Amino acid sequence: MNQQQYTALNETFGMHSSLHIADVSGVPVLSISTPQASARIALQGAQVLAWQPAGHLPVLWTSQVAVYQPGRGVRGGVPVCWPWFGAGELGQPAHGFVRTRLWQLRETAWKGDRLVVRMGLRDDAETRAIWNHGFDLELRVDIGNTLVMQLITRNIGDNAFTITDALHTYFQVGDIARTEVTGLDQTAYLDKVLGFENKMQVGAVQFTGETDRIYLNTDATCVIHDMAQDRHIHVLKSGSLSTVVWNPWADKAAGFTDMRFEEYRNMLCVETCNAGSDTVTLAPGGKHVLGAEIRVEPD
Ligand code: TA6
């Protein structure tokens, strides 16, 4: 985008001192500041990059060496995975194709003392060459002392389609070794580290090494107990039957060019999904909403 386009965007969607759109190495990023919270959202991928409620530490994690580049997702925040979660078919990108595309800014508005941003993406010749369906995809981000995200899928084509999807949220924690996740006790999961072996969670999820698990058939709220920072992060969800818990640990993190390996100690993904066998099928005209609400409680 050129300067005139940024000027036009800010004239239409800017909100005085509360919302401004600027270029970060070719990626349009919304910077948001309200009395209740600050946030950043990249229009590329409709990717929430940061959210910090007033009086709290940052809640979302983004790599200190994250790469901002057209066509490449940022390591951190909340990547949108759609229309598939995980590895694509031969040659297809992992986690779908929408997180590297420029979404359209549809609305910025106050809803009481909360600031709402809506971004959308529709099918075009490029997407149909990858995935031959008509769709309207929208992310609604509602920013206040909690963070509410809704990923709204509409089938606007002539044929039914089946998706898996995720709000792939990266959380900032003080020390992964002093972090636990509750809410998944007695829940079956696929353990990606063990070749997607079927396993059962017993008690809280604790972290002593690479952890990559797809918990299935669960609509439970998860709580991240960030003991090193004396807080508990609640991840409530709707329209989601899977939860993914991921930390790459040192070796995997060392393999990422957009992450310092030692940063694995300060991040944890608890992802709100429909993944694995938890698929969503929409007939023409159908709609599905994947929702996540994040709230922070001090210890
Ligand atoms: O959600 C966990 C996961 O599927 C991991 O297996 C790892 O691949 C992670 O997503 C990050 O994927 P990305 O394509 O963003 O590097």
- Small-molecule components bound: 6-O-phosphono-beta-D-tagatofuranose
Number of strands: 23
Report how far apart the termini are.
Answer: 44 Å
Mean pLDDT: 97
List the helices and strands in order: HEEEEEEEHEEEEEEEEEEEEEHEEE
β-sheet strand percentage: 35-45%
Fraction in helix: under 10%
Structural class comes to mainly beta
Number of helices: 3
Instruction: Report the C-alpha radius of gyration, rounded.
Output: 18 Å
Q: Describe the global form.
A: globular
Which consecutive residue ranges, at least 5 long each, have pLDDT under 50? none
Major sheet: size, sense and barrel closure?
9 strands, antiparallel
Strand order of the largest sheet: 6-7-8-9-23-19-18-13-16
Task: Give an overview in words.
The protein is built from three helices and 23 strands. The protein has 299 residues and is mainly beta. The strands form four sheets. The chain has a nine-stranded antiparallel sheet with strand order 6-7-8-9-23-19-18-13-16, with no helix packed on it. Strands 5, 11, 12, 14, 15, 17, 20 and 21 form an eight-stranded antiparallel sheet that branches. Strands 1-2-3-4 form a four-stranded antiparallel sheet. It starts with a helix and ends with a strand. 6-O-phosphono-beta-D-tagatofuranose is lined by residues 79, 86, 94-95, 168, 192, 212, 244, 246, 269, 271.
In short:
The chain has 299 residues and is mainly beta. The protein has helices at 3-13, 125-130, 249-254; strands at residues 19-24, 27-33, 37-42, 47-53, 80-81, 104-111, 114-122, 135-143, 147-155, 161-163, 165-167, 170-172, 179-182, 188-191, 197-200, 205-206, 211-215, 222-226, 231-238, 242-247, 267-274, 280-282, 287-298.
